[in-house]
Here is the input.
Amino acid sequence: MIKVDIKDSLEAIQKVAKINQGKELKYSILTMGCQLNENDSEKLCGMMEEMNYIKTENLKEADLIVFNTCCVRENAEDKLFGKLGEVKKQKEEKGTIIVIGGCMMQEKHIVEKLKQSYPFFDIVFGPHTTKQFPIDLYHIICDRKRIEDILDIDGEIIEGLPIKREDTIKASVAIMNGCNNFCSYCIVPYVRGRERSREPKDIIEEVKELAKQGYKEIMLLGQNVNSYLRVERENKVPFEEYEGVNSFATLLRAINKIEGIERIRFISPHPKDFTDDVIEAIRDCEKVCKLIHLPLQSGSTEVLKVMNRKYTKEQYLNLVEKMKKTIPNLTLSTDIIVGFPGETEEDFVNTLDVVQKVNYEQVYMFIYSRRVGTPGDKMENQVLEEIKHERFDRLKALVEKQIALKNKQYVGTMQDVLIEGKSKTNETMLTGRTDSNKVVVLEGTDELIGKMVTLKINSEHMWYLKGEVME
Ligand code: 5AD
Ligand code: SF4
Here is the structure.
C-alpha cells in the first residue's frame, strides 16, 4: 500500500502553531454528509487544535472557518452557498480565513461557481488533499494568496495526522476509502477515488489505543466495508497480515478480542459482498452489534440493474433470510432511493414489498438527486418531481407504521444499553442506545455514563424508548 509521507504537514502544523501562540484564535467547522466526512473533520479539528486554534460553535467569533462539504445529494450545495453568503460580511470586516474542503470540491463546476460567485474564499481542497490543509493554511497566513489544492489522483493512504474526537465513548475508525462500484446514481467513486484499504496493523493499533483511552464503541467506516482488503488481494497489492487479519471477517474477529471495547458497528456494507465468512463473524463475535445496515436502494430487479447494484430483489431477500437464520436477534436498517430514472409504479411497489417483508429497524429514505457526471444524470427518463415526492411520502408512511409497531414490541423487554451521556433536551435524564441503535432515555446518575447497563423498557415514543435500571 502506498502511504503518504506527512512530514511536510506536521512541519506546517508546528509553524502555524508558533505564529498563533498566545493569540487565542478561534475556529469553527461545519461538516456536511456522511460519517466518513465527520471522521475527516475530526482530523481537521485535530490539526487546527495543534495549530493553537480553539473551537467555537459560534461562527461569528471564528477567525478561521472550515466547511467540510458533501456532494452525495443536491441539498448540501444549497446549504454551502447559503452559509457562504452568511460569512461574506464577516470576511470583509475582520478578515476571517475561509476554507472549503471535502467531496464537493472535487467537482469542477462547483469550484468554478465558487470562483464566480463567492471569490472571497482562501483555500479549497479536496478529499485527497486533507494533509495539505496545514501547509495551505501556513501560506495563506504568510501571503494571503488564494489557494486551490485539488488533486485528480485516486488517493493514497494517509496515516498519522492528529485527530480530535467529538465523543469520549464512541469513536469512528475509517478502515478504507474510495469506491469501485460505480452505482449509476452515485458521485462518490468520482470524488473519493479508487477503493483502498488501510493496513490491518494500523487499524488494530488504533482501536487498541482507543480502548486504552476508554472508548467503548467502535464504528468501522468505509464506502464498502465488507470488501475490506479485497481489491488489494485481487490486484496483488502487498499488505501485511496482522493478528490474522486479511479480510473484513477476520478484522471483525480481531477487534472483537480487544479488551475494553464493548461494541463494534460498521457502515456501509454492500449486499453483493456479504460473504458467509462475514455473516459467521457477526454471529460469533459477541461485541459486534446485531443491527446490520444493508443498503437496498430499490426493491425492483429492473431498477437495481440500471443502478448497477449487481443483485436482484430475490438475491437481496435470500441474503436477508440467510442472515436472519444464522444470526440470532438480527435487526436490519437500510438506505432507499425513490424516483431513480425510469422507476415505474410497479418498480416502486416492489420497493414497498421488500420493506414490508424485511421489516427494517430503520430506513434512511432519499429522493433521487441528479449528480453531474454520473450515468443517472444522463438518463432521459427522469421521474417527475411530484411523483418522486408522492412515492417518498408513501414509503415514509409505511416505514413509520412499521417502526411504531416495532417500538411497541420493545415495551416490557430487557435491553443492554450503552449509556452515552446526558439527554440533550432534559439535563436530568441520561440517554443511551440498544444494540439495535434505538435511543433509550432513562433516569440515572452520571456514573452510569460510558457503562453498559441492562434496562427494562417501560414505554415507547416514535424516536426513542424509555427505560429503567433494574436493581
Ligand atoms: N440521490 C439520492 N440518494 C443518493 N444516495 C447516493 N447517491 C444518491 C443520489 N444521487 C444515497 C444512497 C446511499 C446513501 C449514502 O445516499 O442511498 O446509500
Ligand atoms: Fe456510491 Fe454505490 Fe459506492 Fe456506495 S457502493 S459509495 S452507493 S457507488
Remarks:
- The longest helix spans residues 385-410.
- Residues 179, 181-183, 186, 188-189, 223-224, 270 surround iron/sulfur cluster (ligand 2) (CB under 6 Å).
- The chain is about 40% helix and 20% strand.
